[in-house]
Amino acid sequence: xxxxxxxxxxxxxxxxxxxxxxxxxxxxxxxxxxxxxxxxxxxxxxxxxxxxxxxxxxxxxxxxxxxxxxxxxxxxxxxxxxxxxxxxxxxxxxxxxxxxxxxxxxxxxxxxxxxxxxxxxxxxxxxxxxxxxxxxxxxxxxxxxxxxxxxxxxxxxxxxxxxxxxxxxxxxxxxxxxxxxxxxxxxxxxxxxxxxxxxxxxxxxxxxxxxxxxxxxxxxxxxxxxxx
Length: 228
Fold this sequence. Notes:
By secondary structure, the chain is an all-alpha fold.
């Protein structure tokens, strides 16, 4: 009876861990959406609310770390369960950093709201949509334990990099033609780089999902493999 009780407690804790990671991911995805909306709509209030919610992201980070350590200490998991816990620990680090990116974008949104826009915001919302989609798919892969879906996320990173490079060149052109745009262009470059980093963090999570499912690391390879 004690063994059955222990097994139930262990499975409950693993379920709690999965749920907490998904909740944290949902929050940071929403934070990115709100930050970019605040930028495009010049909405100071939404930007400030986004900044203030970052403490909730940080709380999730601490709580998930504590839960992982508790499971490790009490149950000494092995094999696939151990890889699940490792994936959760590493993924929450990436999620916390995505939360930081959202906070930084919101700060730039407040600064840019006080000045006329350089150009219509087209590329940045597109980058945000791609980054959020990559994050959603990486977490879907985590839930489904789907290494093929995770690999697709890694491949998607090229598109967000391409958009960042395109916007970088465009903004450099603006700065070269009109020095009065430098301050605004630099802030937009910061936003673009932050969104490019969100894509990188989503890719990191996807790579950890592949490790969790396959027991194989594809991190630091020169190129993403076509198949696993």
